[in-house]
Amino acid sequence: MSQTIDDHFLLRYRELLDAEDAAFDQLEHACEEGDRSHFDLEMAAWRDALVKKFSFLRHAGIELPLAVGS
């Protein structure tokens, strides 16, 4: 790991987790409503939140294995 886990790291990661959680809540709500165009927008927002979180971790030197197949 190339970055020290300190208060700044934890604060930023918490912000990213909260953003992901909020985006997922919106995605879930759009799914429940059955609104396809709203769902597509919320799916894009959730994916963006995931990308930001994983990029932050990768930049910190934390590599996560990718699942291959199911």
Layout: helices, strands, pairs:
Blueprint: H1 7-33, H2 36-59
Helix pairs in contact: 1-2
Q: What features would you describe in this structure?
A:
The protein is mainly α. It has one domain (7-59). Helix content is 73%, strand content 0%. The protein is built from 2 helices and no strands. α1 (7-33) runs antiparallel to α2. It starts with 6 loop residues before the first helix and ends in an 11-residue tail after the last helix.
Brief write-up:
The protein is mainly α and 70 residues long. Helix content is 73%, strand content 0%.
Q: Estimate what percentage of residues fall within beta strands.
A: under 5%
Helicity, as a percent range: over 70%
| Nearest-integer average pLDDT | 91
Order of helices and strands: HH
- Rg from Cα: 15 Å
Would you report the number of β strands?
0
Q: Give the end-to-end Cα distance, rounded to a whole number of Å.
A: 28 Å
How many domains? The number is 1
Can you tell me the residue ranges where pLDDT is under 50 for at least 5 consecutive residues? Answer: none
Shape, please?
Answer: elongated
Work out the helix count. Answer: 2
Query: Quick one: biggest sheet?
Result: none
Which structural class should the secondary elements be placed in?
mainly alpha
